Amino acid sequence: MFGSKKDIVGIDIGASAVKLVQLHESKSGFQLLRLDREPLPPEAVVDSSIMDSSAVVMAIRDLMLRNNIKSSDVATSVSGHSVIIRKISLALMTEDELESSIQWEAEQYIPFEMSEVFLDYYILGPDPNDQGQMEVILVAAKKDFVDEYIATFKESGLNPVLVDVDCFAIENIYCSVYEDETANIVALVDMGASGIQVNVIKNNVSVFTREIQLGGNSYNEELQKRFGIDSESAESLKLGLDSLSIDSETVQEALQGVTDNLVQEVRRSLDFFSATFADERVEKVYVTGGVSLTPNVLTSLAEGLDTAVEILDPFSRMAVSEKDFDLDFVKSVAPFFSVAAGLATRKLGDKL
Predict the structure, then answer these.
(1) Does any domain span residue 298?
(2) Mean pLDDT in the chain?
């Protein structure tokens, strides 16, 4: 499932757009080579499932052609209901022993038939609470769901060499470029159009994940419901591009109500983490995804979580050529590209 170590192109198929990042790694770190996105029509991707493959294929082809990318090797990622992530404790064993027994072990934790899923795992190390146990990250994704993505890339003329998980792709870019972070326990919160993913990492290792079925689309849905407008008008109203003769304070009140709901769900996730992990507390929160740019989201998160909150900028510690890129533009769109950037850090042959 999770696929010569060479640079590959990261392509993130999101609910509202396809994002592409190409990086080059040298001894001094990563350099940004390509950065682009192509919008998708409404409902081309719903709940992470590709509903209109021809629209997604066209977007991918346009991105590759527009950026003159010759390599056909790409990495992508999946998320949603068809992906299950579990941190489990197993008796200490060698990797070979785990390889031969993982199917049986996984049956106890994965609510799908084993014949219907791709399965992968990563050994975190000894269980700090039990010397005879070890901690393992277990990931299962339904085969038909992953096959949708693989078929889409193949139809685009590309070679999907690696399939990751969205929250781990963001973890990859964080661990790759935020080496100066002093907080030991950090929450990475990806706020996208269709949902929010929370990944708590301790000493750069994932220890807790949760997916929240609320996202940027919730703002549009609330505006449509409250003011009786269509989705296109709601998007313009949300972005402040058209007032539609609606009082701005009423609009902001509606938007803030959605923001408060999102903050409450993130807080519940972090509270559950603290309750599950011996009252350990998240020391800092990094947010990414398009919703992170919504007015007042960062302030509301900081107040609601009582924790330092900062936007995760995947390119802030990379080499970015002023000759090739408008640096202000790169900074303004950076939160949209964290998943794609994380995918672009991977190499052919990497595991989870």
Answers:
(1) yes
(2) 92
The rounded distance, in Å, linking the Cα atoms of 329 and 347 is 27
pTM (two decimals): 0.91
* Cα gap 60→20, rounded to integer Å: 9
Q: What percent of the chain has pLDDT over 90?
A: 70
Overall average pLDDT of the 5-11 stretch: 84
Return phi, psi of residue 296, to 5°: 75, 0
Query: 169 with 85: CB under 8 angstroms?
Result: no
Strands 83-91 and 130-142, by their bridges, are: antiparallel
Residue type, 225: K
Is 294 within the bounds of a domain?
A: yes
Evaluate whether 1 touches 118 at the Cβ level (below 8 Å): yes
Tokens of 177: 């470029």
User: In angstroms, rounded to a whole number, what is the distance separating the alpha carbons of residues 141 and 168?
Assistant: 14
In a 3-state reduction of DSSP, which class is residue 290? helix
246 or 13: which carries more pLDDT confidence? 13
Domains held by the chain: number: 1
Separation of first and last alpha carbons in the chain: 9
CATH number of the domain that residue 305 is part of: 3.30.420.40
Residue 193 lies in domain: 180-311
pLDDT of 2 reads 45
Count of Cβ atoms closer than 10 Å to residue 156 Cβ: 23
The Cα–Cα gap between 174 and 341 comes to 10
In a domain, 292, yes or no: yes
The DSSP line for 105-160 is HHHTT-SS-GGGEEEEEEEEEEETTEEEEEEEEEEEEEHHHHHHHHHHHHHTT-EE
- Structure tokens that stand for 305 in this block: 């979580």
Could you give the CA distance from residue 267 to residue 283 in angstroms, rounded to a whole number? Answer: 13
Give bridge partners of residue 209 from the DSSP assignment. 199
Question: Is residue 149 a contact partner of residue 50, using CB atoms and an 8 Å limit?
Answer: yes
pLDDT at 1: 43
Predicted confidence (pLDDT) at residue 350 exceeds the cutoff of 70: no
